Amino acid sequence: MGIIFALFQHFLYTYLHHRHIEDENKKFRWVLYGRALAFLAKVAFGGCVIVVFRQRIWRTFRERALSVLSIDQLFGATEDPSLFMNWETVSNAPILVTIALVIWIIPLATIIFSPGALTFGNYLEKETINRMVPTINFKSESNKDWRNPVKMADGSNRRSVMFYNTTDKSGTQPGWFDYYDQPSAELRRIALLLAYSNMDRPNIQQGARQQICGGSNNGGAFNCSYEQTFVGPGYQCSEVASGYGDTGRLKEYGAPFNMSELAPEGRYVYYSEVDQGAYVRPQAGTFLKGPGGIPVGDPDPSLGVFKSEPVLWVGYSVNSTEPLSKDDPLATNWTHRYDPAIIRCVHMETKYTVRWDYIEPSFLSTAKREYLAPIVDTNFLRMDNGDLDLSEDPQPKENWISPRNNVELYKKTAAYHAIGDMFRDFLRGHVDLAPPLPGPYYAQVYSDVTKTRLVEKNSEPKKNLTEEIEAFYSDMVLSLFSAPEMLPIDEEKVTMNRSRIQSSFVYVPERLWQCYAPVIFVTLIIMLFGAFTIWEDGTTFSAGFSRILVTTRNTTLDDISRGACLGNDPFPMELMHTRLKFGVLADGSEAEYMGGDGYQGVGHCAFGVASEVGPIIRGVPYAGLPDAGLKRRAKRENGTEKEVD
Ligand SMILES: *[C@@H]1O[C@H](CO)[C@@H](O)[C@H](O)[C@H]1NC(C)=O
Ligand SMILES: *[C@@H]1O[C@H](CO)[C@@H](O)[C@H](O)[C@H]1NC(C)=O
Ligand SMILES: *[C@@H]1O[C@H](CO)[C@@H](O)[C@H](O)[C@H]1NC(C)=O
Ligand SMILES: *[C@@H]1O[C@H](CO)[C@@H](O)[C@H](O)[C@H]1NC(C)=O
Ligand SMILES: *[C@@H]1O[C@H](CO)[C@@H](O)[C@H](O)[C@H]1NC(C)=O
């Protein structure tokens, strides 16, 4: 039973190992269960050893004459440790004393030390699991009809990234269609929040880490990381000219301006042209009064058509911080060299591969962009001088995206366009710089770009504006995640790694078995020894009151304890030192003892002084008690005094 209880304790602790239990009461109860098992194990092991101890105690009494004090101490070995201080017991009954010692040590090992195998601690919980996470899917914009709101789980409506106009509000007239009007209010909010936050990362929803990684705040939220891919809009930028006087590929692309506009030659430190060929608002045609942009009569054939997506032309100049030499022609107005550059960005459908690392207390996102194709793949024709002919429609016409035939493609394109639209609002305009000579030197801002992270503190654009623009736009797309009500926010299952520091039970099995192994081993040895003793003795013994009663029915004892038979304490010292031995009291050869009533040769076992008891022989049926009517003689130590009852 002891081994079984120890195993139960082991299994209980194994079950608790690394288990986080929030409720203090429950925690406390689990600990108590473990202790209860330890206690039961103690009872079982201790019980075994005590049985052997009792078996063995009689053997010792038979073999040695011990003082009454020692006999007392041996009987009280389980509750009184003074036994170990008594040289007589230690020297005369070493085995018994050792067994008694084991009885004392078992509770120490089991009750006190074994529960120490279960402690509390922090451990790093690590796992790789599949979880639903938000993703972006513009297909839901493709399939959206503003007439039928899409509901969220909580009953509120999902929000599109754009507002529509239509040719027919009811959507029943033959040939009706919806066409793009402008970015929706929600998209505006998301874009503005990102731009104004001035952070180097996308905005995310509050509590996103707990929601995405799982785990609660008080129970320990997870750190998690995963990668996901989705398709969305992206700006692909390239530098087409850089450096003072460089023309680069400006002509090749039909750039709307050249280096002459930018500092140090011109007055702009930032200059952009972002609206060439943009979708116009209002569209061509006449419309009914009121909302909805419903055309009067047959709609213009170009109504709502995306003929092109504007290319971003951004010129900027940065302070190289290298002082100009005195003889430099620019030195009349400038103290340091300014390096101008012109970049061109094309709005592309882009495959994003985003790695999210939600870590305490914030998160990191790394987006890789693979540009797939221009969102509207058309170009303006050139005039004779190489400039773009903006008065003519961009070509080829087949690549125009019309709201009439391919509605799904149209709505997706419109969604991309809406996000680009918001982005272009920030880039539009210019920042002028008054040169430091003759001074004063200051920047004049005619653009929202200075409200964003694209510029330095002094309103001059950042050095690596090409990458900054791409990343800023990509963060704007990722910021859609901050508003789960947005239509393009979808869910997907990804494989994520997550980890957290969890306060929990910690079980160290070695500690448990370090306690129990010696106990089990010693108990088994003692039990084998006990079995051997029983075999040798031919009978089992116990130390119950009745056994003591019958083994003390010796008149000699009555004599020597005269005056001290009330169980009074302290027992007279002189008596305490009387040596007694356990054995066969009556000598079978004594004539008086043969009553002729069948008790012939049958002795009575009892404590007595060493000289009056003989050895107990195995297999002989000794009488537990002498017959009541039997006259019996007892003799004193020296055998001279005789007394007849
Ligand atoms: C730059 O543009 C201006 C007009 O905007 C033009 O006069 C000038 O020749 C151009 N410079 C070069 C190098 O093309
Ligand atoms: C949509 O309709 C509104 C109201 O008629 C109008 O103000 C707006 O310009 C229209 N949008 C476009 C893109 O034509
Ligand atoms: C350019 O940078 C240098 C060095 O930081 C600085 O002293 C100078 O004032 C800057 N020039 C302008 C126009 O900001
Ligand atoms: C450049 O400096 C000269 C003389 O220092 C001044 O007359 C001229 O107006 C300056 N040019 C600009 C664009 O400030
Ligand atoms: C979560 O990440 C942060 C930052 O790397 C780290 O300090 C913290 O220990 C991590 N927590 C877990 C549970 O991994």
Question: Which structural category do the helix and sheet elements fall into?
Answer: alpha+beta
Number of strands: 16
What would the principal axes of the Cα set say about the shape? elongated
Fraction of residues in H or I helices: 25-40%
Spell out which ligands are present: 2-acetamido-2-deoxy-beta-D-glucopyranose
Our estimate of the beta-strand percent is: 15-25%
* Radius of gyration from CA coordinates: 50 Å
Distance between the termini: 51 Å
- Can you tell me the residue ranges where pLDDT is under 50 for at least 5 consecutive residues? 588-600, 624-645
Number of domains: 3
Q: Tally the helices: what do you get?
A: 15
Describe what you observe in this structure.
The protein is α+β, with helices and mostly antiparallel strands and 645 residues long. It has three domains: 161 residues, no CATH class; 350 residues, no CATH class; 102 residues, no CATH class. The strands form four sheets. Strands 2, 5, 6, 7, 8, 9, 10, 11 and 12 form a nine-stranded antiparallel β-sheet that branches. A three-stranded antiparallel β-sheet has the order 1-13-14. Strand 15 and strand 16 form a beta hairpin. It is elongated.
